[in-house]
Structure formats: C-alpha cells, structure tokens
Amino acid sequence: MAEINKSTPHRTRIEISDGALIPERDERALFSSWRISFFGAIALLVILPLISPDPYRRIITFIPDGILMTFIVTTLSIFFALIVGLFTGLGRISRIKIINRIATVYVEVVRGIPLLVQLFYIYYAMGRIVQVPRLVAAVTAMTFCYGAYLGEIFRAGIQSIPKGQMEAALAIGMSRGQAMSRIILPQTIRVVLPPVGNEFIALLKDSSLVSILAVADLLRRGREFASKTFYYFETYTVVALVYLVITLFFSKLVSIMEERLNRREQQ
Amino acid sequence: MSSNRPRVTIIDACKNFGKIEAVKNANITVEKGEVVLVIGPSGSGKSTLLRCVNRLEKLTSGEIWIDGDCLTAHHADIRRIREEVGMVFQSFNLFPHLTALGNVTIGPRIVKKTPQGIAEKEGRALLDRVGLGDKYGSYPDQLSGGQQQRVAIARALAMNPKVMLFDEPTSALDPEMIKEVLDVMLALAEEGMTMLVVSHEMGFAKAAAHKVVFMDNGEVIETAPPEVLFHNPQSERTQKFLDHIL
Q: By C-alpha distance, which of A70, A206, A211, A66 is closest to A144?
C-alpha cells in the first residue's frame, strides 16, 4: 500500500494509494474543496441546532463523551501502533531470516483479514484467557492491525534512504545498529511523517468500528441516542458531520506539517 | 614496532558476484606513507577491490591485511579495522541531517566515545584544514560538490585512520571543483598519509603517486611508478588504455 516515488535523487516521497485526503499544497483558492467541506460542515453543525433545537441540540449535548472516547482509542492505538510498526519495519528488512519471516508473515496475515473481523477475533480470543475491558481489546486490535500498515511505511521509508548512507556509516566504524539509529532512522522520520499522518486519519475513521464492541465512542453514542429517540437520520447526520470536521482538521494539520518539512529541505 | 609493515597487503584477492568474476587474483601492496593510484577502464574491478579493503564487500577468496590485522580472517574484528581505514566515496555520502561539523564529529563521538567538546574541537581543526573554516554549521545541501567532498575527507580523517581509500573522489564533480579536492588530497599525501586511490586524475598521479596499478577485466595487469607506467608501459593492454585517456 505504500510506494516509493523517487522523483529526485535526494528527496524521496512516499505516496499512499488509498485516497487524496491530505490537501495538495497548491490548492490555495478561497473556495478550495477543503474549505468548502470543513466550513460547510461546521456551519451545518451550528445552524441545525439553531433552526431546530429538538433534536439537534439534544444530540449535540449527548455525544461529546463519544468524541472523547474516539480520541482516546485513536491516540492510544496510534501510539502503540507506531512502536509495533517501527519494529515490524526493522524486522521486514532484517538480515536475520527468522525475524524477517515473522515480520513478513505478520504483515501478510493482518492485511488479509478485515479489521472488523480482527476486532471480534481479538476480543473473543482474549476473552478465552482473561476477561479484558472492551477498551483494551479495541486498542489491542487497532494496534495489531495498524502496526502492520505502519510497518510497511517504515520499511519503505528506511529503504528510500540511499544505500551510500549505511555504507558511509559503516566505513567510519559504526555498527549496523548505531548506523540505523543515528544515520538512517533520523532521515526516515522526515520521509514517513506525511504517510504516518495519513494513517492516523485512517485510524481515526476506522476507530468507529470499535463501537461494535460496545466501546462508547462517537458512533456508539450516536446509536444509543438514536435507538432511544428514533431520530436516526438526524443523529447520524450529526455523527457524520463531526467525523468530517475532525478528519478534515487533521488532514490540514498533516499538510501544513508536510509543507514545513519541504520548505526546510529546500532552504 | 609495526612501522615497517605494509599498511595494506592484498594477496590473491578474488571477488565474484554470482558468475561474474569482478576481481581475479589481485595483488597490491601499499607501504606506509605510500600513495598508490589504481586506474583502469570502467568495470575493471578497481572500485570493487577498494570496497573489499574496508569490507563493504567480502572477498570470495584471498587475503587482505591492514597493518598486521587480517581483515579476511574468520574472527576479524571488522569494526575495529574499519576505524583504521578511512573511505571517501564518489558520491560523498554525507549525512544530510547533520551539519558539516556534525558529519565530522559523529564518528569519534559514537564509535570512539570521544567527549563532544573534544570531538568538536578536533572537528573544527579538520574542517579548517580542508579549507572549510567558515562552513561548520552548513548542511550538506547548502554546500557545493567540492565542499561536500572536502567535508567527507575531513569526516574520514576524524577517525585518525592509518590508510585512506578514495573511490573516484572527483568523478562526480564539476571541473572547476576538482582542483579544490585534489589540492586537499595532495596536501594529505605530502603530510605522509598512506593512500589507495581509484582515480583517473593523471595530474594527481604524476604529482603524488608512488605507484600506479593498472587493472583490466578484474586483473592487475601492471604495477609501476607513474613515470614508467605512463611513458613506458610493459603491457599492450596498458598502452591501449593510456592511448584512450591521454
């Protein structure tokens, strides 16, 4: 899913094929698609409760707990997934055969199973041994899944660093480990930051799946409200708009970050 | 003690890549303080042989000795031997996330555990020596090719090597920058640095080389002092090659 595009010898960029979420840098028009979507969604979230307080105001006061839970699941998952992903990426390029094989099999397995199935599976598999809180099962499953995706991004990032960097580090007497941590990885971080940001947004959206385990995230809170009041259409309108505002906000953040990195590189 | 031993001894070196024999039975000796230049057509195995001398490539058979340490022995401490062999690459390979001073000090700091203050003091002295006293804080992409290559030379010197390897150090440079790099190399040679250089810079060869090795097709064809090899080559293949480049 991650692919390296070597446009110029010294600046490599990883592009993710699933969607153009991160706004292009030159899309600066007043009515850019990002602005229309973002401010349009905010406007609706403000106007709807004003013109029809019942049910919209009730919905909006009911779901903030869910937003918080969505953030908790997302933040914890991305944190652990980054750690798992780093080791997976290193494992995928390891010269030690057994480590390499374990990492590769892990990635293959995760990619081949739908996230929703993984969620169920991990929740009930863990439940056989010890009853864990639903949140723990949810974060474990998200970490397990996204660790593999991030592993592929780290692998691609590490491999995008020219071979001469490792050789130059070895030539001054560094061990492979020292060369990796001091020379290769610091350069990798710049390359992987945009795709990692993209994965963060994807994870945020996928976190809605944890509602199936009755974790009280944004979607789950919406469902609770709707099933009590039968305002299905109105509730899911608000839920969708809130997701949209959050993901658009983060995609803008990622694009600004990417632009800053590029600018620093050009100086 | 060890002062009379050759700094580099290459004995019957062979290197195969699959079925391709890149280096065949090469023998080269570099004495202490000697400058040895390796020339030959592209694909003749000279860069491969040089990369074997600090074990970036592993010999298929044969031996390489660095000042009494056998690099090709089974239990060789490759990292310690590499510390004693400085390497300068055709494409510089500077670390782009570090400043010029950072590039020069990272080896001593990480490998030799030199305290930062001392490493920086020595690093600044080295950058002064290669004529970059005003570029301590510059990142590689802010430097010209010639400046980058001089930083790369300083980076290799920072490990205080017993021998310096140069792999076509001027081939990637614009003509007007070649001289500044060669001047640094000439100064090193005059100070008595032991050097093994893959290059076609005839001016440098005549000014600094004690020996010139001609390689073709993976084999060492001829080894002689520059004035002999350039003007009175013994082998027909050497003559043919020289006709092409002179």
A: A206
